[in-house]
């Protein structure tokens, strides 16, 4: 299970939402809800062990934004760009090591593009890649269970705790 650098992210340790993802469908449902609620300019950081479902979640968001579009894992390309509506940039920090590596891929130009949604896998590899505002999602996979925990910076708290939760049938709060 990843150690989440809450101090670096400026987030409280307690998640706003905590969900069991019993099957692939549940992961897809979460991705769809996120894409319905959060629009252009949002940053979504994804943490979690290998095969936990980070790329799957982004695939579901992309399919929700523009049916027929497909997200691919950026593990080797480092960065993918999708002409969805709004456009999305999908980055994987797994093979990067330092803040300098971010600059060499033009990270901030992509992440600070106000018309795009940014999704960044393995954010815990380079905690300084967190822009200060956004959504943080930890996916965990153990032998018995898969789980998602979600946090939001102040700006996005109500959207996550109310709008996303309602779409997932969790009611308010
Ligand atoms: N809730 C779930 N229950 C069961 N299987 C799931 C669930 N969510 C996703 N999966 C499956 O688990 C795998 C997750 O792979 P995925 O590439 O999304 O993980 P990842 O977190 O991006 O891994 P990596 O760290 O290698 O980038 C996929 O085969 C997907 O179909
Ligand atoms: Mg992945």
In short:
With 173 residues, the chain is of the alpha/beta class.
Spatial sequence of strands, sheet with the most strands: 1-7-6-2-5-4-3
Question: What is the assigned CATH homologous superfamily of the domain at 29-141?
Answer: P-loop containing nucleotide triphosphate hydrolases
| Biggest sheet layout | 7 strands, mixed
* Averaged pLDDT: 95
Question: How much of the polypeptide forms β-strand, as a percent range?
Answer: 15-25%
Order of helices and strands: HEHEHEEHHEEEH
Pick out the low-confidence regions: none
CATH topology category name of the domain at 29-141: Rossmann fold
**CATH architectural type of the domain at 29-141:** 3-Layer(aba) Sandwich
Distance between the termini: 26 Å
Report the radius of gyration as a whole number of Å: 15 Å
Bound heterogens, unique: adenosine-5'-triphosphate, magnesium ion
Sheet/helix structural class: alpha/beta
- How many β-strand runs? 7
């Amino acid at each position: 299970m990843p150690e989440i650098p809450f101090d670096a992210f400026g987030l409280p340790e307690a998640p706003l939402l905590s969900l069991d993802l019993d099957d692939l469908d549940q992961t897809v449902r979460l991705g769809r809800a996120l894409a319905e609620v959060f629009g252009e300019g949002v940053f979504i950081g994804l943490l979690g062990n290998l095969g936990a479902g980070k790329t799957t979640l982004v695939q579901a968001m992309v399919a929700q934004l523009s049916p027929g579009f497909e997200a691919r894992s950026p593990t080797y390309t480092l960065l993918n760009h999708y002409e969805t509506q709004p456009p999305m940039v999908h980055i994987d920090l797994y093979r990067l090591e330092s803040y300098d590596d971010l600059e060499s891929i033009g990270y901030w130009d992509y992440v600070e593009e106000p018309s795009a949604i940014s999704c960044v896998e393995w954010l815990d590899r380079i905690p300084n890649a967190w822009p200060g505002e956004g959504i943080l999602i930890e996916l965990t996979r153990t032998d018995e269970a898969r789980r998602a925990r979600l946090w939001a910076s102040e700006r996005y708290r109500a959207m996550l705790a109310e709008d996303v939760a309602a779409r997932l049938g969790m009611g308010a709060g």
